[in-house]
Design a protein that fits this description.
Keywords: Membrane, Signal, Transmembrane, Transmembrane helix
CATH topology of the largest domain: Jelly Rolls
Protein name: Ig-like domain-containing protein
Radius of gyration: 35 Å
CATH class of the largest domain: Mainly Beta
Number of strands: 58
Distance between the termini: 37 Å
């Protein structure tokens, strides 16, 4: 019986292996589609939940969610990278190696099942082109019920094309694109419609730092959630559909609410492809992004022009392989490109010092969807040679970044004859306007006021993307040095990437600054200086930067408006009888300010039950009282008080002058309040609320049981082995003599046959 079961299993395995071999030989890969669970794509928070309709044959359904009010924490989010711009074949049905490629941009399709909301927001969080205090950019498109349908607003600017009709609100499409004269500037045109054919411009998403929205978890310094869907509701929850994202449909295809993953990963490249250098590793900053799959495999290929790939036939002759996609869609006529590949003269025809080449990436997701991408698609036409990438000797390139604010005129010998700002004077004026705008903000009443001044305050340098160029690298690959000074002070510097530029403004007054870029090869922009009526090139340094004729200088004025306490972060949960250390408050103010801390315990009103910090915050009043209860002040530690004395709260060990910590004595909610008096303006205050639960869980110490009972364990193991032996002797029947002799004869026969084969 056992032998028969093993035989059937062997046949099954053999059959499976044969089918696998057939699939390989015929290249039957599941490249087109795979049904996957829809539950792991988006995440619901708070009371939001999936609410897909019941499956019914022939009825089209999409991924559906129910959400309540966002103030209660309800939202639906996407916690993975989202592609904003990439390239694909211009003729996807007939791909060729000479295809010039075409741009693809972010697209999203949603649908509303009702209008049970006062407003519904789709928020896109990204890194930044120009740094800000928040460290990230949040762009929003908001839908609001209106007469006859739904109105649209992008970052607060109303759509000028009326409303989306109620009959069409079940399928709303959102697309991004770039203005042709502002590619790579970080601003995206937002278009809205009900199909790809009727898209109308609705506004602009601004200050986006990369061509993808990069996810960063809550533990990051700056958490980023690429996509968020949230609503303000009054009574009933609202129901909405997410129909597609970047071409990936979220139609539910079966009774298990699966979606069909049939879209390959997108290749996003943030670097501006310029030139490749002989002897240097081919390093291209890219991100492979797939909507459904969490894993992407990357294969890289290359072809040097004039150095065709050759195949050796059975007869030893070599034939050239024509670069093309074969009948199975595989790229032929290209070489594998290793991650550490460096090109040298021997890689080019006649050992030339460089040449042109094509580089291709193949991306395959975890569900076997794959696609090819040519890197030359992502390069500007001006840096290509007949559509292919250039590779040169680094020694032949002596490029330095150039400023777009001035024209440096040279004679035939390369000597500077003049520096002219007339041609680009409007650029200087435009950037100064951007600087002026960056130096002001709005107060709570909507008035325009100066940005904050004091310790921890910064002026954030606006993007210089339109104003600096380099022959070897793009703007985002450069490093920048900001030279700045305040009247009567020495020149100081700060350096960083394009999205890290800020100037400390610790005192009020007039500041001036200038920016000098350095390319990826380490070459800084050269300065032009004048001496005795003649011009010459020189290195820019702290001592001479203000004398450089080709360096534009900008200025701004800031004024102190009083101390500011930044919005406190949420505190961790506390435990009774366990010391709780309160996180620092971030104070922006001139030096010399004074602080005072107070600790309170929340006593709810009779019949009131409070279950969350959000409830308490919502009931807080401007004067520090709370409509749901009373804040009982906890006195500071006083060693002179006797136990049981009135006002003795020494058990809390609250002594803010020495440590911002306390020992909770009972469960509930505590408030730590800070007041800041800077002597120049009104006193300001802020608070943090801490939820303290029951006693902390006790983690048992290391057990010594095994060490103290080693002998008992040994005897137990020996006994178990003896029991196994007894069972074997009882159940296993020894072979009879005839069987043993037959097996010996068979083995002898096999041995003789092997000997005869030698």
């Amino acid at each position: 019986m056992i032998k028969k079961k093993i035989g059937i299993l062997s046949l099954f395995v053999a059959f499976a292996l044969c089918m696998a071999a057939l699939c390989v030989s015929f290249d039957l890969r599941a490249r087109a589609e795979s049904n996957i669970s829809s539950t792991g794509i988006f995440t619901t928070l708070g009371g939001a939940a999936a609410s897909n309709e019941e499956y019914s044959d022939g009825v089209t359904r999409y991924l559906t969610y129910t959400t309540g009010d966002q103030d209660g924490g309800d939202s639906v989010v996407l916690r993975k990278n989202v592609a904003l711009k990439w390239y694909t074949f211009a003729d996807a049905e007939n791909p060729t190696v000479t295809d010039a490629g075409t741009e693809e941009y972010f697209s999203l399709e949603i649908g509303f099942k009702d209008t049970n909301f006062t407003d519904f927001t789709v928020a896109l969080e990204t890194t930044q082109m120009s740094m800000s205090k928040a460290g990230k950019t949040v762009n929003e498109i908001v839908f609001t019920p209106a007469e006859g349908g739904i109105s649209v607003a992008v970052n607060g600017v109303e759509w000028v094309h009326g409303v989306i009709a109620e009959a069409d609100m079940g399928n709303i499409r959102i697309e991004l694109s770039e203005a042709k004269d502002a590619v790579g500037y970080g601003d995206f045109i937002v278009s809205v419609g009900t199909s790809e054919e009727d898209m109308l411009q609705a506004g602009t998403f601004k200050n986006i730092g990369r061509y993808y929205a990069q996810y960063a978890s809550s533990s990051a310094d700056t958490p980023i959630t690429p996509l968020t869907f949230k609503a303000n509701t009054e009574e009933a929850n609202t129901v909405f559909e997410i129909r597609s994202l970047n071409g990936q449909s979220f139609e539910l295809v079966d009774e298990n609410n699966n979606v069909r993953d049939n879209v390959a990963p997108a290749l996003v490249i943030d670097s501006e492809i310029r030139q490749l250098f002989l002897g240097e590793q081919v390093s291209i900053e890219y991100t492979a992004i797939d909507v459904c799959s969490s894993s992407v495999t990357t294969n890289r290929y290359y072809l040097v022009d004039g150095m065709p790939v050759k195949e050796t036939g059975d007869d030893g002759t070599e034939t050239e392989v024509t670069p093309a996609f074969d009948e199975d869609g595989e790229l032929a006529g290209y070489n594998d490109l290793a991650s550490d590949k460096r090109f040298f003269e021997t890689d080019f025809p006649e050992n030339a010092a460089g040449g042109t080449l094509s580089i291709a990436f193949e991306l395959t997701d975890g569900n076997a969807n794959d696609a090819y991408y040519f890197i030359e698609w992502y390069a500007d036409d001006a840096v290509l040679s007949e559509g292919h990438l250039r590779m040169v000797l680094a020694e032949t390139v002596d490029a330095r970044p150039l400023s777009g604010f001035y024209t440096v005129n040279e004679d035939s010998s390369g000597t500077v004859t003049s520096v002219d700002e007339t041609e680009f004077g409007d650029r200087i004026e435009a950037y100064q306007t951007a600087v002026n705008d960056a130096a002001v903000t709005e107060d709570e009443d909507g008035n325009t006021v100066s940005i904050q001044v004091g310790s921890g305050a910064y002026f954030y340098v606006p993007s210089l993307k339109p104003y600096f160029t380099d022959a070897t690298c793009g703007y985002t690959d450069m490093e920048f040095t900001v030279y700045y000074r305040k009247a009567g002070t020495d020149t100081q510097t700060v350096s960083g990437d394009y999205d890290e530029l800020r100037i400390p403004v610790e005192t009020e007054g007039y500041y001036e600054f200038c920016v000098v870029p350095t390319n990826s090869a380490g070459n800084a922009m050269a300065g032009v200086f004048e001496r005795g009526g003649s011009y010459y090139y020189g290195d820019i340094e702290t001592s001479n930067v203000w004398d450089a004729e080709n360096v534009a200088v900008f200025g701004f004025t800031v004024k102190y408006n009083g101390a500011v306490i930044e919005e406190p972060e949420e505190e961790e949960v506390g435990y009774v009888d366990v010391t709780y250390t309160v996180g620092d408050f971030e104070i922006v103010a001139l030096s010399g300010y004074e602080t005072q801390y107070s600790l309170y315990y929340f006593v709810p009103n009779d019949g009131v039950t409070v279950s969350s910090i959000d409830e308490i915050k919502a009931a807080e009043q401007a004067d520090g009282t709370n409509t749901l209860g009373t804040w009982r002040k906890i006195n500071e530690y006083d060693a002179d008080l006797e136990d049981g004395a009135e006002g003795n709260d020494n058990d809390y060990s609250w002594s803010p002058d020495s440590s911002l910590s306390f020992i909770p004595q009972e469960t509930g909610f505590y408030k730590v309040e800070i007041e800041v008096d800077d002597k120049y303006a009104d006193t300001v205050s802020a608070y943090k609320i801490i939820n303290v639960t029951s006693q902390a869980d006790i983690i048992p110490g290391t057990s010594n049981w095994l060490r103290e009972n080693v002998l008992s364990v040994v005897f137990l193991c020996v006994g178990a082995l003896c029991l196994v032996a007894i069972v074997v002797l009882l159940l296993v029947k020894p072979k009879d003599k005839a069987t043993v002799e037959a097996e010996r004869a068979r083995k002898a026969e096999l041995k003789a046959k092997r000997e005869n084969r030698k």
